[in-house]
Amino acid sequence: MPEKHLLMKSRFLKSTSIIIISISTIYLILLSITSYLRYPNPIKLSQMVLISERNPSALPSYMSYHQVPIDNNNQNLLIPYTKNQEEINTVSWKGKTVPFQTFLSESRTRAFILIRNNQITHEWYDPTYSKEYLFPTQSISKVMTSLVVGKLIDQKIINEDELLVHYFPEWLTGTNFDTITIRHLLDMQSGIDVPEDYPDTLLGYLSPVVRMYSTTDHNHFITTNRKMSFSPGSKIEYRSIDTQILGMVASKITGNTISDLFADFFWKPIGAEYPALWLVDKVGGTEKAFSGFVCTAKDLARIGLLIANEGMLGADRLISERWIERLASPVKMENYDDWGYSAQMWHPADNIQLGLGVSGQHMYINASKDIVIIKLAEASTYEDDEKWEFDVLHEIANIYQ
Question: Which of 394, 315, 374, 381 is CA-nearest to residue 109?
């Protein structure tokens, strides 16, 4: 019996060793692949892929970030509540009239704020979340980057008509990439061949825009993705890489992070209640200027109100008249139901400006009627409902008054 026991123990230890060696070998192979691609390590990457579909709002917990600090002594932009909250009973959603709560549920909305005449008339949060929750704003982040770049243009630190390679001469290619200007980047006219393809299968996570989101080295990503799909300025085609480059230009020329620039220019002056986060490619690295801004719904509403109030915070001007006009002067975007686009803002209808992010993020602004709507959600990346969602917000803004 002792000999049989020893034999079984020996076989168990041998099998265990083989399993451990096999798992370790597979992990090392995957680690070498992710390192080569400038991806996070395999475990972290797996967590990010799983959480991006199950609970996108939690994704920042798995990523590095810079904090966007607040000014604890500043309460400049308080948003009062109306005495009676506005009731929203039914809305038109995908061709049907449905209860508003049905829309919120089916669009996987987690926070909804309606502001009329600088007062909150309706505020709702999914019970799982709270007013203090920091939501990923996804591509609404592009508006934050635009505001920073606009401020630097006003200060004549950046020239809108300057060539990109003036700021990054190391990116010269000898191709028409070298003719891209800051203006081209602002209006999605660069022509850089990094298409906006979001994953609907596992292989989709290898798409260029997902690799840009996941990369641990934004500079390497840009230097290895400078092929062109069309000549700069010849047409408009939505590309997140344009915004990423804008953020990198702003950081390089000032020597400051986008997080600090945005905090000093806007976040502190408006009296944001909570520090925001700006996701970065690695610890101490470069912000994801196109998608990484994370904040509360109400603080995001403060940015919307600042734009709706034409850049004014009381008697102080935070956004120049020129940049307010720049944001409001769209060119039609092809293949997008004639929605307009200008300086990182969408224009889906007359007098409407829209910050729009994947998975159901909306910052709706109608400055002429003093209306701001914030809708933050966690829909799947392959649920292309943003136009349906805009129609609902537009209806609420114009019918419920």
Answer: 374
Bridge partners (DSSP) listed for residue 279: 65
Q: What is the pLDDT of residues 269-298, one digit of tens each?
A: 999 999 999 999 999 999 999 999 999 999
Listing DSSP states for 35-87 in one string gives HHTTPPPHHHHHHHHHHHHH-GGGGGGGS-EEEE---TT------PBPSSPPP
* Higher pLDDT pick, 29 / 313: 313
Does 229 share its domain with 298? yes
Residue 269 is encoded by which pair of tokens?
């002056």
Q: Cα(first)–Cα(last) distance of the chain, in Å?
A: 86
Q: Please give the pLDDT value at position 4.
A: 67
Distances (CA, A) of 166 to 126, 163, 170, 181, 230: 47, 5, 9, 9, 21
Same domain, 25 and 49: no
User: Do 265 and 148 contact (CB within 8 A), yes or no?
Assistant: yes
Q: Which domain holds residue 22?
A: 2-36
Closest CA to 356 of 310, 393, 321, 323: 393
The answer to whether residues 361 and 369 touch, using CB atoms and an 8 Å cutoff, is: no
pTM of model > 0.85: yes
Name residue, tokens 């990182």.
344
CA-wise closest residue to 305 among 72, 109, 78: 78
In the block, residue with structure tokens 């904040």: 295
Domain co-membership, 61 together with 19? no
Q: Could you tell me which of 171, 199, 181, 312 has the C-alpha nearest to residue 242?
A: 181
Q: In CATH, what number is assigned to the domain containing residue 182?
A: 3.40.710.10
User: Are 32 and 49 in the same domain?
Assistant: no
Question: Are residues 103 and 12 located together in one domain of the fold?
Answer: no
81/102 same-domain check: yes
Digit-coded pLDDT (tens) for 232-253: 999 999 999 999 999 999 999 9
Spatial distance between the Cα atoms of 70 and 89, rounded to a whole number of angstroms: 36
Same domain, 18 and 64: no
Q: How far is 221 from 209, CA to CA, in rounded Å?
A: 10
Buried b (16+ CB within 10 A) or exposed e, 57-92: bebbeebbbbebebeeeeeebebeeeeeeeebeebe
Same domain for 296 and 376, yes or no, is yes
Q: Tens digits of per-residue pLDDT, 55-83?
A: 667 777 778 999 999 998 876 668 999 98
Residue type, 189: Q
3-state secondary structure of 136: strand
Q: What is the domain count for the chain?
A: 2
